[in-house]
Amino acid sequence: MKLVAPESRTILGTLCVFLLLFVAISSYADDLTGNWVARDPQPDGTSRDTYLDLKQTGSRITGHLRVSQFYYNIVESTGGPDTFTLTGTMIDGHNERQVKYEVKRVGDELHISTRRRPDSELVEMVAHRAPAGEGALPARLPLPALHDVPDNGLARTPPMGWNSWNKFAGRVDDAAVRAMADAMVSNGMKAVGYEYVNIDDTWQGHRDAQGNIIPNKKFPDMKGLADYVHSKGLKIGIYSSPGPNTCAGYEGSYGHEEQDANTYALWGIDYLKYDWCGARNIYADEDMQAVYQKMGDALLKTGRPIAYSLCQYGRYDVWKWGAKVGGNTWRTTGDIRDTWESMTKIGFAQDELAPFARPGHWNDPDMLEIGNGGMTEDEYKVHMTLWAMLAAPLLAGNDLRDMSPAILAILINRDVIAIDQDKEGKQGRRVSKSGDQEVWARPLSGGEEAVALFNRGSQGAEMTVRWSELGLKSAPVHVRDLWSHSELNLPDPQFVRTVPAHGVVFLRIGN
Ligand code: GLA
């Protein structure tokens, strides 16, 4: 047996330690560090991509996750060396939303499983290496100094039309838009003032080499579609976001504001809804005015009259600066749903915003749900009445080809539309509230007034309005019931009526 000298033993020991270290490191050498993407091709030709920009240090993973418009910081990683659970929280600081990814390294692939929401089904995907930086949050662009964008002269009364989102969401396509334009003409909506046919989110495809936005497969010829809508005597609207992505994860206008405005003008677009969503990853609420001003200027610069609809859910007191950025309407709330709770929660919360509405510039409590099936006819009458009292945009959100005569009658009630479209543009306000019963009044041009008796309760209720409450000295000479289309003779000092559960009585009064 050969004896090893003590100094050689030390060298051997050191070598062993190095070997062990090498083995330990090399098991992580081919680690997860780098950029990965899992692509999910969609039938419209776009791809919903999930990026994982990872840095592995030992068994710890840090970095970012991006699921289309949602960006997350990885705040926790457990497991290893080949299987990890990554927890990400939203980057924008406003949203509590968290994601959890189970990530398994299999050769040069990452096999991922996750749930979009805690209660939704498991989604599985496979990610491959992607070039560094691809899919990363773009750098913040400098913002213009604030100034007042000149009034575009549009929307002297609240815009009326149709929007695709509430009924069609991601299923809107060229054929649906043409069909809605046809229906709007044939069912009498056009005749009572509905005018805009608005495409909401999910029309966008990719940008070409020059950065021009190209629609996805659902919209093969946007100019042709605009020409078609115009040929019906109607106008056409489109949708984008000041962020890199829209709410549904499609291409936004970030860094392409003027270019997109010019494209819209070239196509013949008449209306833009500009939805904050993807911008929240880059900008703070305090930046909103400058961000919206940028597109307001860009639209004006095209020389084409394009109505400008701000959609940022009423954040940062938009009613105080919406008109300054050239906005014709600004959303005052989160998204409406087709329920009595959602509609009334939004509609009855608008009272204090009344002073901000005026010709050219309107509060927008979101689009109509009338005819989508989630409310009763009485409830939809409350919806229509309340929106008319609020001088709100009247953008139908149902399938215009397919509605009952009763629903159509609600949408095309000329008496109610005349209140919404009153040219003085003064928004109505709450006069009184007692339990579930509320009386609202709206001053109209020519000294007339609209008065709505709302019963939010689940039982019919007798309601009384004293004319003196409305500042009148005596009973008005003319009282018209706007849902029964009848003239009432009311000499009494007060008006008493049983209002159905979740119902309304709507009057136009004058002398
Ligand atoms: C947001 C808006 C909606 C609609 C969707 C589309 O939620 O508030 O009105 O435009 O985005 O993704």
Question: Could you please describe the fold and organization of this structure?
Answer:
With 511 residues, this protein is of the alpha+beta class. 23% of the residues lie in helices and 31% in strands. The strands form five sheets. The chain has an eight-stranded antiparallel barrel with strand order 1-2-3-4-5-6-7-8. It has an eight-stranded parallel sheet with strand order 17-16-15-14-13-10-9-18. The chain has a six-stranded antiparallel sheet with strand order 19-20-21-26-23-24, covered by helices on one side. A hairpin with a 7-residue loop joins strand 5 (83-90) and strand 6. Helix 5 crosses helix 6 (288-301), helix 8 packs parallel to helix 9 and helix 9 (377-389) packs parallel to helix 10 (405-411). The radius of gyration is 29 Å and the shape is elongated. The chain starts with 5 loop residues before the first helix and ends with a strand. It binds alpha-D-galactopyranose. Alpha-D-galactopyranose (GLA) is lined by residues 165, 200-201, 246-248, 275, 311, 335.
Bound molecules: alpha-D-galactopyranose
Strand segment tally:
26
Distance between the termini: 123 Å
Helix content: 10-25%
The helix-and-strand class reads alpha+beta
Rg over C-alpha atoms, rounded to the nearest angstrom: 29 Å
Mean pLDDT: 93
Proportion of residues in extended strands: 25-35%
Number of helices: 11
The gross shape turns out to be elongated
Unreliable spans are 21-29
Largest β sheet strand count, sense and barrel closure: 8 strands, antiparallel, barrel
Strand order of the largest sheet: 1-2-3-4-5-6-7-8
